[in-house]
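User: I'm writing a short report section on ligand binding and want a predicted complex to refer to. Could you take this sequence and S-adenosyl-L-homocysteine and write out the structure as tokens? A short remark afterwards would be nice.
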Amino acid sequence: MPRKREASTPRRRSKRGRPEPAEEEEEGLGGVPAVEEEDGSASVILARCSGDEPPRRKVQRDAVANEDENVFIGEPVPEVEARQRWPHRYQQPKEQTNERSQRLNSQDELEDIILAKCHFTRLKVDDQIYCLEDDAYVKAAENEENYICKIVEMFEAVDGTRYFTAQWFYRAKDTVIKTHDNFIDRRRVFLSELKDDNPIDCLVQKLNLHCLTPNANSDFTSVQVECDFYYDMMYLLPYSTFISLPPDITAEAVSESDSTISCENDTAESKGRALEKILLDLYSGCGAMSTGLCLGADNYGVKLVTKWAVDFNKHACDSLRLNHPETQVRNEPADDFLCLLREWERLCVSCSLIKSNSLPHPCLNLANHNNGESYNSHEEDDEEPRSDTDDEIYDVELILDVCFGDLNETGKSGLYFKIRWKGYDAAADTWEPIEGLSDCQHKLKEFVENGFKAKILPLPGDIDVICGGPPCQGISGFNRFRKTENPLEDPKNKQLEVFMDIVKFLKPRFVLMENVVDIVKFSHGFLGRYALGRLVGMNYQARLGIMAAGAYGLPQFRMRVFMWGALPGEKLPQYPLPTHNVVLRGSVPTEFESNTVAYDEGHGTRVKKALFLGDAISDLPPVENDESRDEREYVDEPKSGFQEFIRLGRDGMPGCILYDHCPLQLNEDDYTRVCNIPKLKGANFRDLTGVLVRDNKVEWDPKVERVYLPSGKPLVPDYAMTFSGGTSSEPFARLWWDETVPTVVTRAQPHNRAILHPEQDRVLTVRENARLQGFPDYYKLCGPIKERYIQVGNAVAVPVARALGYSLAMAFKGQSGTQPLLRLPEGFPEAFVPANQTLSEASR
Ligand code: SAH
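Assistant: Sure. The structure tokens for the complex follow:
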């Protein structure tokens, strides 16, 4: 059965894409399948329990009773053939020992191989006949559901014991998804690569298990009636991967429908239709994630364009608009966006623009309309016959826009249209609910038809990629009211559901979801498991990786979870291996530690050394605490490769204007405190007069009188002394040139975070934070200064998104490897020249 990995650090991982075998000491069983008990009966280890593995059980054999009835039948497989098919079973003991010690040396399989006398293709247990490749239930412990396997070998061991080799299937609940399997049909199971040998009397019953061709649109209903279980994917432990079956298996698969997704894509691709790939950025913030993805995809020759972005923060939307004129930025809550998409689809159905299972929109009924194009403000409460004087009738000249929400603050959300009134200018434009437009069916139809043509909104199938980081504030460590039992009951975590509902509606080819590590930490990884469960439930292939920003060329640790989804028939994107050598720090729960994207120990020889704060910001001109200019010029030349690269403009030429290089202005008291912090490595409030440190805990120095500022407030505030029980050195701490910053955050206050410039009396500027997040210097931000810090602090580090974009482009081209990780090209991204460009083109 599935095995526990080595108690691994993220840097020690099997490169074989298979789970590591268990260590004997840890499991106590060493992978030996049958254990003789003192009474002569044998017990069998059917499974090992660790993390997302099926439970480990010892099962009693009724061996003695049935031994003679449970037999192989027919002639053995001819010896020559058997040796050819299963050579490892026929090694000489000496060879075996040699090979075993070699394998041990290479940290490979630790398992003993049971040698065979001969192989068979049929066997009988409890009067039931099983053939090779049959699927079967295998006995589990009392009150446990039987295990499910494919019989891939049948042999008599040299000691006379009759074995079959099981290749195991996982139920969804036995995978990383665990109890979050309610979106997955009970009969859907997942093939694993894990095999082991068991005495034949563990077989319980033959099963009718169907192997299905992957098909995104299928809910597999037609096969459900015919079989006990069905499978269309493999589940592999590394990076919690759900992946379509390899072609050699699907060749024999049952097809659920004639056209699988992969065929459709091939056709679209071969017709040259899909040259540009369309991206929707949800919870887009200022757009760092999609910016990075598009840059990275471009590095592999795929033109990915962010056609839509959605965020309810106005300033973030302004930033995105400014930097991406090609994007339709929707400043609205994602929930409303989803409702809008559903309504839009129905409007398109009403106008016969698309075929869909959705019903036509009830408010756009082209069969029953009159030709008037007026708006009746009394539409809804219109029960009595009205006199002309009761009504205010305005004429609609044009419908300009559409949105969903509670625009009139009635407590009820609905579909609204922006109206230009006949005889009025833009200043008189208003948003009107669809119910009031029953007399404007022509205008409505015209708007929908034009909007459909202009693709003002995406319809199902229009989107190639959805990316986004749905906020899950309900799991933040700072939130005392967290819902531990069911984090989804907390409205603060609702966006994860909304994100998945949008994926479900639009069915993009690929999904990339980013989130904080807490989603695999809080409540035993509840939300992370839920998200995977949703993706798999929608028939997406999926995997989960944890990446550290610093490993992609930034002086910042910043660990984040990235979940890939890919429709069946697509290649499941890989995770790009680090380009820089940061030492990964804890904070990932043990169970997901091996999901951290890192090299196996000793294999990351080509990575560059980690960057420091100085590499990122030392070229920036000095600024004061009260600097308020949003734009200025560079003063110094770049002093590092990082600075040279980050200063390049959109056109690839060195930029000359420096944006957003101003700090959050500290108030007088804080400014004075900061001026008193020495300009030295490691300096912080502990260096202020009157503070003593004992056993790494601060206390007041009884010999020193407390110092007060001109305002009457103390120089050393109480909150600094009590923060983290007096053990923190973060309040008013200076960063230093040779340091890696833990994580850029959204708040720029120095009260409990090391955020002071090494040698200037101020916090880091918005631009300095943006540099630590890998934003190119040309990326200008909008909004009040605090809002700009928020946008930068919320962002996905651009180099991480860029590396993921490269990997995504490989998947688009069908070139992703079978392993979960990929190595980026040498020099990526600074010195890397895409295959389709010459060096001179690249440096232009
Ligand atoms: N991926 C972005 C950062 C996203 S941070 C980047 O790389 O730049 C999360 C964003 O979600 C914030 O900008 C916040 O304004 C937005 N947000 C939070 N709740 C939302 C909701 N219900 N609807 C739309 N946007 C929301």
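A remark for your report: Residues 612 and 739 are 5 Å apart (CA to CA). The domain at 363-377+392-455 is CATH 2.40.50.40 (OB fold (Dihydrolipoamide Acetyltransferase, E2P)).
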